Amino acid sequence: METAELETKVQTLETALAVQEAAMAGAQATQVATQAGMTTTFAATQSGTWAVMGVGSVALLAGIFLGMGIAKH
Question: What parts of the sequence cross the membrane (predicted)?
Fold first, then answer.
């Protein structure tokens, strides 16, 4: 094998490794972004659930006291 041919093969391998590293970095970035999005969505869902439960509890208590007040009259 000649030196020029070896240099070409080495350059080809270097290019392939660079592409592979870039693809791996992109995949990791995508995974991090996906996990962050899932975490944010879960937190928003939990907040919304607790907000609805809080409002429902206040409305229930208000309804009980209104009902008791109406029943006394």
Answer: 50-71
